[in-house]
Design brief:
The protein has about 260 residues and is an alpha/beta fold. It contains 10 helices and 10 strands. α2 packs across α5, α3 runs antiparallel to α6 and α5 runs parallel beside α6. It is globular, with a radius of gyration of 17 Å. The structure holds S-adenosylmethionine (SAM).
Length: about 260
């Protein structure tokens, strides 16, 4: 926590606000995605499921998925703790919803499903699209599947396998939006990034959670920003967003905005 506060103080010092940004593309992103607070009908159903999960104190055994995989340190937890501590907050999931909806992304990959609430946002954002989501824990994965059924979501493929086994088999899919939210180690984040960057095109968007989770994750984020195929990296502290658009100067923006705290 102390480390995160020190990261944020530095971020505030180095960052810029929306009034000092010249890029039309970033302005468009801020206006339509970050500053947009329209609530859609589908949000109500997902947040209702979240509120039900928050009331469930049933214990669950968690599978050991290796270093960097856990925000919860113990091997057992309860559904309400997973909901509170592991799920992205509604505000963050709603940013992802708006990215998919605004850019009309159709082929979406989420690395790390957990109970599937963010997956549900991604799914609702474009009913003509498809969301592939990966969760290595069998129990957590079956709880997510149950939530998709409750919410009547039909455009989700949930894969219950370890990331390292399945991602190489998915590379032919040409995902146009990828949410990296599974393994919080530098090595794994970079490994998945380099695998998936191979299949990226100039319309791809990659979004990284927890870029300030640790010094290691910050180093992974810095390396991603410097990768030559990345044209624009937008750092909103709570998420790192990467665009591969060609025909523009490489740019890195640290944006001071209320979404920093989501
Ligand atoms: C932070 S949670 C995902 C949260 C979700 N994306 C959201 O926004 O609410 C990460 C999930 O990835 C799973 N996971 C971690 N390491 C994994 C691995 N190596 N293979 C497969 N699943 C893994 C964990 O079990 C956990 O449920």
């Amino acid at each position: 926590m102390v480390k995160k506060i020190s990261f944020y103080l530095k971020f505030l010092f180095q960052g810029t606000n929306k009034y000092n940004i010249h890029s039309p593309m970033v302005h468009e992103f801020i206006e339509n995605i970050l500053d947009n607070s329209i609530k859609y009908y589908s949000f109500i159903g997902i947040e209702h499921v979240r509120s039900l999960l928050l009331k469930q104190n049933e214990a669950i055994e968690l599978k050991d998925l290796g270093a960097g995989s856990k925000s919860i340190k113990s091997s057992t937890s309860t559904i309400n703790i997973l909901t509170k501590k592991v799920q992205s907050r509604p505000e963050k999931a709603q940013i992802l919803f708006r990215v998919v909806s605004f850019f009309q992304k159709k082929n979406i990959l989420e690395i790390g499903t957990s109970l599937g609430l963010t997956t549900a946002y991604l799914s609702n954002a474009n009913k003509d699209g498809k969301v592939t989501t990966i969760e290595g824990d069998p129990k957590v994965s079956s709880l997510a599947q149950k939530n998709f059924k409750t919410l009547k979501l039909k455009n989700i493929e949930l894969i219950n396998q370890p990331f390292d086994q399945i991602i190489p088999q998915l590379l032919k899919n040409k995902f146009d939006l990828i949410f990296f939210d599974g393994n919080h180690s530098k090595e794994a984040t970079l490994r998945y990034f380099y695998w998936l960057a191979e299949q990226a095109n100039e319309d791809s968007i990659f979004i990284f959670d927890d870029i300030y989770w640790s010094s290691d994750m910050k180093q992974a984020w810095d390396e991603i920003c410097n990768f030559d195929k990345v044209m624009l990296s937008l750092d909103i502290f709570s998420l790192g967003i990467v665009f591969f658009k060609k025909n523009r100067e490489k740019e890195h923006i640290k944006l001071v905005h209320r979404s920093n705290l989501y």
